[in-house]
Amino acid sequence: MSKVKQFFGVALLVLVVAVVIIFTLENDQRVTLVFLTWSTPQASIAVYVVLALLVGCCIGPVISWLAAIRGGRVEKAGPKVQ
User: What's the predicted TM-score (pTM) here?
Assistant: First the structure.
């Protein structure tokens, strides 16, 4: 990886972290989420949004991986026989 790509990757990461921190500090209203009969404890709006972001960041690659397997685009590990 070239130094320029590495720099922009780090800069993008720092920017995202800064935006999340600013968002968290600006949104301190306390809310309770309710789904059917289940309700969460009161917490800041930012806590729920950041949790949703993290869950999405974890689930997205898994769904893409499963879709690739189902489509047959992932090669199986091991030596290739010619």
Answer: 0.56
